Amino acid sequence: xxxxxxxxxxxxxxxxDEYVGVWGWALSAAGIAAAEAFVDGAPRGGxxxxxxxxxxxxxxxxxxxVEHSGFxxxxxxxxxxxxxxxxxxxxxxxxxxxxxxxxxxxxxxxxYAIGEVPRLNAQYQEWLARHRPGEAEIAAARDRGLALxxxxxxxxxxxxxxxxxxxxxxxxxxxxxxxxxxxxxxxAVDAATDCNVRDEVAAxxxxxxxxxxxxxxxxARDTDATAAAVALGTGEFVGxxxxxxxxxxxxxxxxxxxxxxAPATDVVYGxxxxxxxxxxxxxxxxxxxxxxxxLLLSMHYLGRFVLYRRRLVEAAGGLGSDHEGAEAYxxxxxxxxxxxxxxxxxxxxxxHLADPAIKGEAAAIGPAxxxxxxxxxxxxxxxxxxxxxEPGAAPGRWRVRYELRGRPAVTVVLPTGGKxxxxxxxxxxxxxxTSYTNLTVLVVDNSxxxxxxxxxxxxxxxxxxxxxxxxxxxxxxxxxxxxxAIPLVETPYLVLLNDDVTAITPDWVEAMLEHAQxxxxxxxxxxxxxxxxxxxxxxxxxxxYEMSTHPFRHFPAGHSGYFGFPHVVRPWSAVTFACAMLRRxxxxxxxxxxxxxxxxxxxxxxxxxxxxxxxxRILYTPHAILHHHESVTKRVIAEGDEVGTMRRRWGDVIRxxxxxxxxxxxxxxxxSLNMA
Length: 676
Description:
Strand content: 25-35%
Distance between the termini: 36 Å
Shape: globular
């Protein structure tokens, strides 16, 4: 028995225009060995078998392994011509029989070449049409701004270089169109600028007293020009715009409302996209998380339009920078070292001038690489952080490597149900595939038999490296099993690890420990891949499906995801306990897992949220990479009122996960747009 749910006939590609998603299920009394995908007769990427399918289990309860009968694939299609294509999923059973499943899907005509304009698609154009502010919304925003009790003033700075400034008029027009009127626009114009541009600037300044101009000597550096521009103004908050960048008419009003709600805020940033010089093309929307200092060390995610309290900028050394090409990044690093009062407005506030013809790595958001590296290295030195900076796992991304403080002992807590075909490679991976040597393994045996004990004796290299703790418990209760193990851990650090996990990167323990040793970090999660090398875990998001999900699940391991998020160290609200590292003391402070209300599912998410409530960060690192068969050795279908418990307990986070964005989907795991 087998079936392909998606893609259906004439269905548009799923996930991205460059990929098509494949979902389905397959059953055999002999068991399923593998699934493969072919498009138009040619092999087309991997398909993972073993995904949870409770709907199939309810219909065919007699088949072995029916709960995990699903297959999922994300197939590259960037080379396919528009039109209908034939998909074949070939399933092979354990006894060698093959089942061929046929489907058709349609590749829609594209208005651009793949890679020419990243993330330009019809869905975003539809989203823009829905969210473009109309006259009534603009009038209401203007009234709201006038009614604010606290009205901050904004100084906006634009450098006009000698080489010209395409789109400068659009920038000025967008500032003049603001619904919030308490602003000043300070223009620093190079003396060598074309006379037509100079005339336009002079005319604009003559038409509105809030526009101020300073004329610079020829060839002035950008940092000197910015400093000259800021000296013109008196705004309580300052922000830098590029010539050609365009603000939403609501941008300053939204910032003012945010500041009125939290007057102590020092930094405000919003969401953004790209715009061409003619202003007719917008693409690449970046809907950001709330304040995430570790993400800022991985990439300049605050973006181009950021409003800083003026006295904070002065205390941080001003707008000038020694790192030409990364001035904005350097300022963000310097300013946020002095404050954590950073506020995100989850709305599209600005569009930044870009050339749609620039492709690939050159189009990645971020400052000049050498300058960014220097700015980050200087930031570590200022902060007294022992470590270094190196290029990250994606273009324009960075990895801060924290120096390990010694080689502390780590205990791997390994619950098992006794399936030796998974437990054996897991233990062997810990013993021979893991470079960290100060490691002991506590196997919590819930099998009720003696096979696990025999395996532990056979594999133990001596001196108690592998310790078995028998703990028979029926019905299955993952939280209770972990809770039983925690008091037995005597080392300062522990790893919670599923028994169906094996290492890919030998230094995965070191990659997690460098963050777990940081006092501000509470839990560290790893990058987990299915055996097909598709992503299984790269963090946990609250909100989609009114619950929690794993973003980018089933994406190819090398897929950029959303602005490289699967490939950067960053905070999430939770990580999976299939592989997570904690300080032993975190349990003493926060308590144990909720064995009463969350015996099977969501116990790790609940625990992470409790740790986050204490002010600790929940971090994900893509530099600890392991394979995970996901739930082949334990049942993870939510039981009883587990979903209800989470919704009652964490409803606020489900409604607004600070590390997600309300403009992103609540009906999937792919960071597509929220079209509701």
